[in-house]
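Researcher: Go.
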Amino acid sequence: MMKTKLTELLGCKYPIIQTAMGWVADANLVAANCNAGAFGFLAGAVMSPEEVEAGILEIKSRTDQPFGVNFHMYQAGATEIIDLCVKHKVAAVSYSRSPDKVMIKKLKDAGIVCIPTVGAVKHAVKAVEMGADAIVIQGGEGGGHTGSVATTILLPQVIDALKESGVPVVAAGGFSDGRGLVAALGFGADGIAMGTRFLMTKESPVPPQTKENYIKANPNQIIVSKKLDGLPQRMIMNKCLDDLEHAGPISMFFSAIKNGLAYRRYTGQSLLSLLQAGWKMKQNNKLTYGQTLMSGNAPMMIQEAMVRGNPSEGILPSGQIAGAIGDLPDCATLISTMVNDAKSRLAAMSTLVN
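Model: Structure:
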């Protein structure tokens, strides 16, 4: 075991979190990582409450280890998802934008650990004030929605800002191996969170042809763009993203409408509930009307690559670390290799101190 404040809080063997990548972090991937000693989160942000419950039950059938569920507090069905997490005694929940004090209190009253992901010092401080039990801090190297400050700069700032609170800080963005785990612990973090590295494993449900794009990517090809939903996201440059980069406002408007309606049909939401979710997201995140409208693009364009297996026609969210990864191990091998490497490096470093 590797004991840190994070492992004590979550009840996992190693201070490694598998993040909740939309369309990727399914029950099979979560269970595989939990059985290997990490802590996995189910990607509930792209699921209906019924799908979340089915995922929770499937994970419980595959592992007796603790796990978590991720969702957006502004999404349709968020209240029902919270009730399901309480009902099934899920160990933790993760969320990013739009925290809600009432929802957080309900989770904490049920003994569920709350772990938001943030990308700025001020957001980390606010999250703790609202009741977060731990914080995942993602540097600009991370995939999907991300900030502009590198992990090595942001991480120590957050650790210093939260020192008095005693809340565990987890580092995300640019991690894939034992060296990274040791580096994060050296900075004072209580563990690491990885998304892209777990996407690139055998248990990941991403189709082989899409995974191949990740294997072939180089760091310079994994860029940050606002064209998908108006917010900065790190993605692999491909034909789909290149088309978006050159699309005009009218084209983007119709794309957002088409994808938003497609997402409504996929989830079975009413048009009213979809509009209400969009309004909550706009208000809580201080988005423009254009950014709110464009948010309809992301889920379906990511699904095209991650589920349907059409990588050139869909979006490929990715951390820059994909450009340094060249294999697709199973989760158990990945985690055991990381931990053994980290222990060896920690032992070697101890000889440097008299």
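Model: The radius of gyration is 19 Å.
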